[in-house]
Amino acid sequence: MRHNSYDKNHHQVHPDDGIISTQNIPTETIKNETTETTTCCSHLREIFKKKDHEHEEKKGPAELVGFLSLFRFANRTEVFYMMIGSIAALAHGAAFPLMLLIFGNLTDIFTGRTFDLCSKNLTEYDQFCEEGVMLTPENFYNEIMKCNLTAANLTLPNIDFLGNIRQQSIWLTIMGCATIVVGYFQVSLWSVACERQTRRLRETLFRSILNKEIAYFDTHKTGQLSTRLTEDVSKVHDGIGDKVGSALQFIAAFFAGLILGLIRGWKLTLVILSVSPLLFGSAYIFTRITATMTSQELKAYAKAGAIAEEVFSSIRTVFAYNGATYELKRYEKHLRSAKLSGIRKGGLNGMLMGGIFCLIFCTYALGFWYGAKLVRDEGFSIGGILIVFFSIITAVFSLGQAAPHLQSVAQARGAAFTLWNIIDTPSTITINHPDSVTKKKLIGDIKFTNVHFSYPSRSDVPVLSELSFTAQSGQTTALVGSSGCGKSTCVQLLQRFYDPIDGSVEIDDMPVSQYNLGWLRGHIGVVSQEPILFQTTIKENILFGKMNATQDEVEQAAKMANAHDFIMELPDKYGTLVGERGAQLSGGQKQRIAIARALIRNPRILLLDEATSALDRESESVVQDALDRASKGRTTIVIAHRLSTIVNASKIVVLDKGSVIEEGNHKTLMDERGVYYGLVEAQNLHVDEKDGKIDEDDDTPAIYTYERKRTMSDHLRRGTDTSAEKIEMTDKTNQIDITTEYTGPSPFFTMLKMNRPELTIIIFACLSCLCNGGIQPAFGVILSKVIAVFQMCDKNVQERRILMYVLLFMGLGFLMLFTMFFQSFLFAISGENLTQRLRAKIFQTLLKQDITYFDQPENNTGALCTRLATEASDVQGATGIRIGTMLQNIANLGVGIILAFIYGWSLTLLMLAFVPFMIVAGFLQMYLMTGFANKDKKALEDAGKIAVEAISNIRTVAQLTKEKHFGDEYCKLLEFPFRNSLKRAHIYGILFSISDSIMFFAQAALFTFGAWRVEQGAMTFENIMLVMNCILFGAMAVGQTASMSPDYSKAIASSKKILILFNRRPTINNSSTVGKELKNFNGQIDLNNLDFHYPNRQEVQVLKKFNLKIAPYEQVALVGSSGCGKSTIIQLLEHFYDPTGGQIKSGIVYMYIHEK
Predict the structure, then answer these.
(1) Domains (ranges, CATH) in the chain?
(2) Rounded to whole angstroms, how far apart are CA atoms 515 and 495?
């Protein structure tokens, strides 16, 4: 039975977790959390408690490159592309303010027909009309045909109303066509130029990193360099592509709108601009608060994620001590903190966004109130007022829209500063220096003369001091000494990873620094303590020693390294994949492949840096035999861990504190009874004890997973005798109940059912959304009424009506303040509770899984932590506020369509034909704003893997002189995504330009058809404006909803994965409380005829008819070679696995009955 005091024995408990023992914490489960969340509205005071008093460290001024320096990798072709793209972007930006100019002219044409009649006394003409006809400015053109114009001596002005409307509509159509052209050139040319430059940057940066001297990597972490190659290059990519074009577009729209507004009405322009500081200030506060609250939320999730990573990486320890419940409580504690931060963020965001929209509606009110005053007092036309008003609004919003794109450029300048420094930092040690020397033949005589050296990263710590010794060609020279005495440093100086500070390192009487480095390393073979194999086949790993070797040469090298026999026993032989860093092979197997890799190039110098120190006795014996054979006829430098392996060395050099203190062969040094003699005697004295300890450490269950993978071929070498009957038994006993495809009810709505405790909150949130969605059509109605008011002849009535509509604008603004707050806050409550509930249940479910689940490669620690973090967030990303926005926009279009049908059904039908295009347009607009970086992430993953593998193993790459090889492979893998990105750039350019032009064509059709309907007396201009506002604005809003489809797709996919996990039934439930509990557990163990093989490697039998009886209080030692099954027995006793055959009894009870 497993011990049930995990909190006392677990050595990774943190004081800040606030948990002392499992007894003093109330048990929380997913079910009873439901009760807690239903009362969340009563905890507003807790939710909005003061923020944590944490202050980020003040940062100095950011280091940025100049804007033009961003384009250092652009050639003449790309410069030309960017120039044309910039001109197109400026023209594109100016198009919308120019459209407003045409819109104002159209408004004046419509309203002018009525407004010009206000100066006439139309009642004088009523006597000449049919009975019941009374002429007014509003119905004049429709009713005048019922009057006798000749008798009334009235001549109508010769105004071609429909002709004027058609002329302006033609201009709109021309502008729409021009927008298609300039929009295409803007996006496609900037994108193509960006992709070409980014590809060149990736290649140059990667090759630059690979060709740095090793000292560079001592002061720069390889993980950070890999990040630079991915994340920082992506930031530069974002800052030199289509976002630059978008920034230019919005900047052009800002200046065009501002200039147009000042020209057509500078007074109204200044009045509207007076409100802009409040808008910008509110937006700034919104951004800062959002960033701060998001940071707090992410910190809490990071703490929870750290706990999850700790648990999954030590899952056997957690299960062994029954720590699942304890770890679940620790995890939930930080989830609660993250939930409260998310709810606070949602409430504050809603308040600030509502405030911003309230200011916008108040700006509308101020603008129309002052505009009406200008119409009455200074003779402004309504068209002129609309041009000025919407031009300035466009300018202000364009500046806001340009901000994120300019921020991307700023981030690119910051990222480029680091990247340019990496590229421009010269390497003091280059592979192919033009003045370097190659020889026809390398003899292999080595000489160290008065060498002084300290590592650049620790220049104050001397490593070598006046070191001098020689190694003769064809002989074996061993370097021995205590740890840190400089042995490995000598090996690195021979490969010229570093240059000595003083003295010289010579090969064949010529300093190493004068050789062509690539040629010299090509004649040196290296086998280190932990050899690095690359994630490819055994054959390709051996070929890294000599790329043009034949199959016969590969096999001959493997035979010399004692590796051929075990390779041929593997299922795929030389085509066997070795895994990441050779993880699928044992230590001895990796060493022998590394020896074969070193020998295939037939090196004159062989460097063996503690090549057998990490191996067990059996593996060491095989590898040492291979090393002895490989050393014959070569200059060999050996750094020995066990001195028994260098007894036959031609010379032994004893080092201490970086200097030679003894030198000679084994017999000579033993006779001298000096330092070497003491080292040998110490090892002989403690060899049995040490070997025992090593064997114990190698068999520790904590490292079992890696041990099993590395010893795969050891089992194969011993052979398997698994009968069909046993395989059938395995299938029944160790069946993994995992569903690869989810076939149940809608996964997304199944996830939403977990939000049932917040049903009341969600209902009120949806009502807020629907109310919010109705505000935009209400705005369209009021705007059309305002325009109609300007057609009135009575200025007093006009003033009163304007004041009424101004107050309605302000009322809409304050209404939106409240609805936005409740919408954001209430959905934050429901969404954060759903996320917390999902994360906790996923974590809890994972802690119920059997060890077999965690043995599967796809369920490694990183993958599980990523799933835990992303899948619940993906589900929330398509729920909560996103559902609210969808409801709001659907309500917007729905109410708009109803109103539009009421006021002009024929015109509404015409506009509805454009709605599908507008929805797609809105989707594309939002979609393209994310840039193209995310599109290439998947395609760049393979290239990224090559880059990370090469950079993280840079010493091995340098030893093998494979910098060019990995650089070429990386460039090849970039080719496919590069070609795809060029195609996509043109496609996106076309779609983007079409989407941006639809508004021009829609308005041209609207006003042409509307004018004809007005001429027929079937509609008024007020109705035309109402239909336009309701349909166009509603369609654009629904387009934003369509842009959320990727989020919905991710939510569906994540929901399926979550439900597959929830539905999985583990063969051993590690959190179950079912089973017998003995009052007197005496510890007796009886293993009867045990058969076992691991579920993920059923072809390898680990235990076969194993029997063992252990009496109570008896101590039993399990010994044997690596891979013989010692650790397996321990794990079966822990009930991590069920045996495939036989029985385990413990305390007179069958173990398979026990879950604890």
Answers:
(1) 1072-1153 (3.40.50.300)
(2) 11
